[in-house]
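Protocol step 4 of 6: record predicted structures for both targets in the notebook before any analysis. Target 1:
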Amino acid sequence: MTARIDRRILVRALALGGMAMALSACSLFNSSKEAKPAPLENITPSLQARVVWEARVDSVKFPLSITAVNDRFVVGGSDGVISALSAKDGTTLWRTEIGKGLSAGVGSDGRFAAAVTRENELVVTEGDKILWRKSLTTPVVTAPFVAGERVFVLTLDRAVLAFDAADGRRLWELRRPGEPLTLQQAGVIGAYQNTLLVGQGPRLAGIDPNRGLLMWEATVSNPRGTNEVERLADLVAPMGRDKDVFCARAFQSAVACVNADRGNSIWSRNVGGSTGLGTDATLVVGGDGSDRLTAWGTRTGDVIWTADQFQNRKLSAPLVTAKSVIVGDSEGYVHFLSRDKGQTIQRLSTDSSGIAAPPVQLGDTVLIATRGGRLFALRQD
């Protein structure tokens, strides 16, 4: 079966084995017409949600991800300014201009922050002080991951680089035989205890963060197809987590959950889609290629509910909270769904530029970012 490729996602062909990268990007959507988004349904709100503060960054013209750490959100804009905002009231705790536009989101552990510029330069700060810069040879569209006084970078060809956060020394590089095609979309990188977790093609790899050695890998998808495009199955961010269980989507092919203690897949379901997942102890939620949402049981993979009221609205990845499932759309609406049935129980409007990143929660505050650069902090009552 031919995979349906979303127009929003560009694919770059990568020549492996040290050869040159093919720089041309192409749209692989099968039709010149986009389906019309489903109209907004009439709802009777049963959840109280409100905007508690607002802030701004420059417009978002890159794959944005927001880091929530300690008591703050760390964000960046297209102008290359990165900042930390208090989750309580939106106060700017620090702000620094790294001098170039960004190609990916900002990673932070609360002390160090790291970002990659459009000129492919990795920049690391400590608060508003720039500590060092390093030029990278391969493009990056995934926010760096900062942990254990190290900065980990996942490149577009899914190699992993590790740097000392304080002085920029390169500690190691892990480059494995890769796929002929990769997505120009944020990939998967994170950690569980003393294991670095990285998406490499259709697999989730567990890596020793000190030495860069592969410890285990779990298959999320077994790609099928007659050509490289149909077999494209990169893992896409965000990755969901509940304790030792991590759940990820393989582009247009599967959703699966992996036990990071044992390094094995718990369950896998063949389902299309191009955005990441929201996860908690009970639910794993994701949208398919038509923006139909499905909730699976985190430990079982059983379907709990499906919701088709947002078809073709170009949804963000969802956020699963204790009170609702939250998802944004391309018209700037934020939708709140009931956890038990997937019914719409509230809707808020931001701006018409569209939601630019998956919602992120810190404590009782959920941060929403739009492509126009507006930040909305929400709370559910």
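Target 2:
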Amino acid sequence: MGENVILVTGATGVLGREVLDRARRTGLPVRAMTRRTTLPDDPGVTWVTADLESGEGLDAAFDGVATIIHCASDTRKPKHDIPGWRFLLDAAKRAGVGHIVNISIVGVDRIPYSYYKIKVEGERLLAESGIPWSNLRATQFPALLDTAFGVLSKGPVVPVPSKTVCQPVDPGEVADRLVELAQGAPAGRVADMGGPRVYGATDLARSWLKAVGRRRWILPVRVPGKAGAGFRAGGLVTPENAVGVRTWEDYLAAKPSR
């Protein structure tokens, strides 16, 4: 296997697909990892089957890999992410991987939400692994907000967290940054990455409803506990790192009509 092989985990996900597209453009050998046993015919990419939940197939998948861009995450059963991290790190050590680039979320250390706690633990395991690493925290992807509003708007009222702001960032732009990091030296925790604008949650809901042609009441709801306090304190945004270009309005304008 040639040098400088980049492997992408979670290569079939929203972010993974974007990362894979950017990695292809580098001209470096690229490997994409999936749990699927039927692999796509994808020019310029070597697809491999491996499972982070069990560790099966990781040694073969990582053989000859210089850099891993880790995008895989089980959002439905996030508790699987921690065993997945351990399998990934152990296999990466055996394979002599020289750099792991991880994607995380802005606010994971400020909002005690269960999934965020798992992301923080993953960051800790990486930092303590002894493998050189880079870690990027990004704000919310528009598709996530889109899905949430789609669910919340099924009734006559759309509940949204009160006094909460968000900063949607384009996943393609995050992918650009991850691939840039993968081609550079391990940098530890790098500057957070946010979209170009900060929006109130109610404003996001209002613009989404207009874009999809739905009439609903918007109901600001005070989220209780420390997580709600973190939302209201601006834990989801990084206005000092508003480096994204594509806006929420751009995303809505590109949505197919419903």
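Step 5 preliminary note on target 2. The chain has a mean pLDDT of 95. The first helix runs from residue 14 to 25.
Proceed to step 6 after PI sign-off.
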